[in-house]
Design a protein that fits this description.
The structure is a homohexamer of 283-residue chains. Chain A is of the alpha/beta class and 283 residues long. Chain A contains eleven helices and twelve strands. A six-stranded parallel β-sheet of chain A has the order 6-11-10-9-8-7. A four-stranded antiparallel β-sheet of chain A has the order 3-5-1-12, covered by helices on one side. In chain A, strands 2-4 form a two-stranded antiparallel ribbon. In chain A, helix 10 (247-252) links the parallel strand 10 (235-239) and strand 11. In chain A, helix 1 packs across helix 4 (90-120). The longest helix of chain A has 31 residues, at 90-120. The two termini of chain A are 45 Å apart.
Chain lengths: 283, 283, 283, 283, 283, 283
């Protein structure tokens, strides 16, 4: 994850939440009052982004804030676990609180959900991957949380991976024509992936030498047949309709990857709170 | 919702998703090929942002795209319902698809969830309101969707509302001291809201003439006693632990507002897809 | 005042003044030459923003510059008084000079003018407030200076306060209809303010339960009658045609607030200069 | 004035004033309601920026707004004169009103003040010029208004003009050394200007072949002697302590330019208002 | 190439060149004077970016400028050939001239140079590709020009392709360890490329199943041996020390790609000029 | 060169090259692994921007990187010479490498080429100057490199210098009319330069009192006659068709300046590489 880009994002998030100033906090606290605080888990979760997201919010706000003992990415936390320690001006701790929590709760939500999917396919070959169904503006952070949860990333944007879909195929007439056009123009550094809806299309993919075949909403039975047909000549990505209930059965068909939009579009923000040590009345 | 700010956000979302260019689509489609497409509901939902968010994505991308018949905000859509019609260069329809869907699915998710809460308290006085627990970068849009769903907005940022919380009170010694400090500095255009954790604190609030009292995680019984004690001298906002199951019982206590973080932090992206009319092979 | 936003503003101001580089100073001084300088008052004034604005300009330009002993906000300075001490690379002191002075002179101008109005109403209930008639791009800083001078802030922007004016009323037919529409949509955290031009309209305001009534260009006599009529049921803001000469008479009518556009649109930049300790010729 | 830069500035000004949205207007007016409005002078003034600043604010906000009959830059307007006509969505007229007025009032203020100085020196050789004592963020617009008022512009920033001041001279030992260093590095396209505090320094300037000599706070008598001494070998700029009362006497000394910080740091925002034609109640 | 990003870049280029305004042109031409102009080739070249770069500069500057008959990308132009026709306000044609030419001359320079390399390897299998040795800020445009010239693009940035170099290998101990680490984390949509300096390393690459092997500065003889050894199991990219003189010999070794930094770091800006039809004196 | 603007540029360059993250390096190196590296010349060159450009890239990326012993601007380096020393996290050294080299190679290329032209005219009066034919986005840096190489800068943008060309003259009818219009509006701080194509036009320039006369593509003989005719009453700038071969002959005609577009549009990126000290395998 690129830190310069991250800081740029965080500045935007802080501007959104703070506006021209915190009129409550600025009235109550002097500019010099210091405090300590911790971020604390309120439910079981997989930690993600305590240093890189939550801690960084406070560092961007005020580099003099001490950000200590961030819980390591990927560690499981139980309710009550301290996930980050902070010390600095009260004003800045309160100004950064909401953005830090809004980020941390979502990233831990994604990592925790991803881990559940990853655990479901334990021992099998298939890898859990995300999609481009991310929250606008948060893709870099959300894909980071997927990695923390043990998942893998699909392409980041339309420029760093090829995915030939039904509309592209229709426009070219055949899969082979579409693959030809793309292969003649796309950087050689990216693989060619094609979405197939039938065994016939899978065969066309193989004939065209595609690198990855995405199976769109196929039945388990169809997937098994595809795996057999492909026989290792391309990677196979299952996609569509995957749930925690059926993911293991999908993995057992032998596909290489299972991409799941829900990792980033239907996670829950988990319970994390900022607890501040009481500040003495200003004398 | 401010359209200039909105367009600025959308440009950022598009940049994130497109990167330096769509290497698949650019290889397949000529710059002049035109197509039509619709956005279609895949499950029952409350429409939100079809014109202002989804449609605007395409207009920002290319002002020549025709964006027609957006489903009206707040209307209930059944599966298969057409929510927006588009016509323009294929390249731009495909480049905008993901961002438009990522936004539309989320905004409809929020409006739909909000509507469920609002329906639960039908006939009662209490209003459903959101919180600052929004997705970083999406607050303006998410709060818009809450309004579409029949909910009300809490403060947008730290500058446009006063909320005196436990840390502020502790720092000042008493609620009355905290209220005094804030009243002496905050713009007279905003109300003074204080978070109270006990009846004793509610009494302090009344003595200090606060405008709104937020009850933090009180029992139904406590809330009823507060409503009686306050007797209309301040507005009462219930907060914490609200679910679709208990929201009506909370409303029945007589509180004026019920604020629910889940509206914006735990909604589901709903199923909406872009269906493009097949494009003929380029001759 | 939000410091992240402030630094962003200052960077823009410096870019405007410096352009691609200071061709005079860069030719004369080596990159390592150090100097000391002070900001000095040239006329009696109320200090505002010496640390937050003037000092910050130099810190943004070069964090290694020592910025010391800023005169406290709100203190009265006599001609010759040292308001800020600086020490660092000559080049940076000269590059920052103009922006720092341009800001300091204006902020002190606002604070000094505000203080005059505030002093005029000493002992009375009325508070002096600003308006949205601020210099484009400087609102946050100008409203800060108003607070330093003892004034209060009206709403910061169109989103953080409700003000129903003649056009809104005309469009809705009656004040009560306008208030109803706004109350049904605006966040509950902001007060409802309505502009009234007659006693009849003041009565309508009271019937509609508005929180604040703005009296637009009323005579002293009308204001007195309004104060009596309202009897504490709403706050009253006098507006229009206020001068240093008549402000006390307006306050004596018993209004709660007096809003004055001149605080931010017709102040004078006061005389403050940067005096640098002579730098020895570079050997 | 560069229009791309101008639009960028205007977007920032609108964002500052509107924030996430106009909660009053959006509640009252439908998105389709249209209205007409005019900008009207409330006192005698010299028009400046009606098309380029005020009108452009509305065009940036919504390109479909009709902006017509802007009063020509430099024309004198009497109270009641219509300076600009607008027609478009009510919402956008109200959202743009404050920024347009805040700009127009200031620019007309500068043009009007500049004109007064220019009129004072009518028939004499001296030209009135501005300085870098402009409002941070508004320099391009303020210097434009100076030109409209008949004044001339001094350098725009530190990169597009050379001005060797006391600190530069002290650091180099002599004026001739300072001029030498600058001449060896600055682009040949800019003139060399030096600030002189005595006749001796003026002589040094002449010996060094400087193009412009700035006289800092000299008496009328000294200025006369300088004019005689220089005898056309360099241009002479008078600076410091210039008022409407003494400007003609300064001009009569024979100096070429008189630079006046007050043009941009101590002007008054003039009375201009937006009058909207009543909008019928929404049926 | 993404047009939103492109327009953003162009705005920055125009701001750099125009600054606060064109003081020569604004003094000479009225805002309404119209003119026609053409961009004309001054030497033989391959056209690139006449519509997307040069034409777009004028459209960004003023959407009312007519931009017609751009020479098609990839066409060879002879001296005197008209490459673009323009018609619009003289001021805007002159303000955009330099940026449009600076871009067009460079993009045509790249396309022309690329075409020379591509022509040298005509009939052979090898493809000419660019590198990340592009001009900071211009990568998207420069890589576009490479494609226009018949070349192919290597990765756009560090996120959309894997290239394991000597430092990565040294840090992991072996190529296989490095590949393993990267394969376990990088998106499955990108190929794995490894830089090899010897046949031993090429063998390690094959054993690790890498997709692309980059040969760094190998002799023709070594390359031939690598091609034989690899036998189609991976793609081979030749790199380092390629010139127009030796590129065909390199291609004849059988490598798949030849990457050439000079395409984007050592091209010449070609001679293109803007010829304006004389504008009549303003009466 | 303004460092704030420079840092802003560098952030954009880094964002372009890094994208959402370096997927190779992040997989291989831990966040804490440190390394040392040097930038090394690969061919004879004149150093430019080692501290201000290359070193600053790393400081912007991570302020904790030690940037030491930058080779002084203008020094001649032989192959193998160490030009900059770096020490810090391996990840950041590798992430910054390409941008730092892309800048350093270009700036040294410009300085080296400029020096060649400057050396050619050694002992003569003429100065070598650049033009506005710079790479879009890099003008500030490229003009800096020209100064490092011993050249002088022409105007930076259209606002900081006057250059009246054929189109301006045609539009005004005569040179004297054009000069008059410009002199009446342009800041007095900039010189008036006019492009002349014949001796007749040179005479007109002299009659109009222009400061600088640019000779466009004149023969050596014509230039000699112009020099004689002008006789010191204006500066003379030769322009067009200058090469390393003919520059001395042009200088010998007695012109004051020789402007050369090739300095910034046809330089070569010189060979500089980053050599990293081997990093031990991560245990």
């Amino acid at each position: 994850m690129d830190e310069l880009l991250l800081d740029h994002l965080i500045m935007g998030f802080l501007a959104e939440d703070i506006g021209p100033g915190d009129i409550t906090t600025d009235a109550v606290f002097g500019i010099d009052q210091q405090a300590s605080a911790v971020l604390q888990a309120g439910e079981p979760l997989v930690a993600a982004g305590m240093a890189l997201a939550a801690g960084r919010v406070f560092r961007v706000l005020n580099p003099s804030i001490a950000v200590e003992e961030p819980m390591e990415d990927g560690r499981r936390a139980e309710p009550g676990a301290v996930m980050l320690k902070l010390r600095g001006p009260v004003r800045d701790l309160l100004r950064g609180e909401r953005v830090a929590l809004n980020l941390a709760q979502r990233l831990c939500g994604i990592a925790t959900l991803t881990r559940k999917y990853v655990d479901q396919v334990a021992g099998l070959n298939a890898q859990i991957t995300d999609t481009r169904k991310t929250t606008p503006g948060l893709r870099m952070l959300e894909k980071y949380a997927v990695r923390v949860g043990g998942g893998r990333n699909h392409r980041f944007n339309l420029a760093d991976g090829v995915l030939i879909k039904d509309n592209h195929i229709a426009a070219c007439g055949t899969i082979s024509a579409a693959v030809g056009r793309v292969r003649a123009r796309a950087p050689h550094t990216v693989r060619i992936e094609v979405e197939a809806e039938s065994l016939a299309q899978v065969r066309e993919c193989l004939d065209s030498g595609v690198d990855i075949i995405m199976l769109d909403n196929m039945s388990l039975d169809e997937m098994r047949r595809v795996v057999k047909l492909v026989g290792g000549r391309a990677r196979i990505e299952a996609s569509g309709g995957i749930t925690l209930e059926n993911v293991r059965r999908v993995a057992e068909t032998g596909v290489d990857m299972i991409s799941i939009g829900a990792l980033t579009h239907s996670y829950k923000a988990l319970d994390i709170s900022l607890e501040m040590e009481p500040v003495n009345p200003k004398s």
